[in-house]
Amino acid sequence: MREIKYISNIDRLDGIPESEKASLKEVTQQYIFRSNNYYLSLIDWTDPSDPIRRLIIPDPKELDDWGYIDPSMEDQYTVLPGLQHKYDSTALLLVSKVCGGICRYCFRKRLFLGRQSDILRDFPAALGYIQSHKEITNVLLTGGDPLMLSTGKLERFIKALFAVDHIRIVRIGTKLLSFNPFRVTRDPSLLEMIKRFNEMGRKIYIVTHFSHVREFTPEAARAVALLQSVGAVLINQCPLIRGVNDNPEQLAELFRALAFAGVPPYYVFQCRPAIGNRTYAVPIEEGYEIFEKAKAMVSGLAKRARFVMSHATGKLEIVGKTEELMFFKYHRAARNEDSGRFLIMVRNPQAYWFDDYEQIVDEYPLAWPQGALGGLDSAVLS
Question: Taking the model in full, what pTM does it have?
Answer without folding.
Answer: 0.93
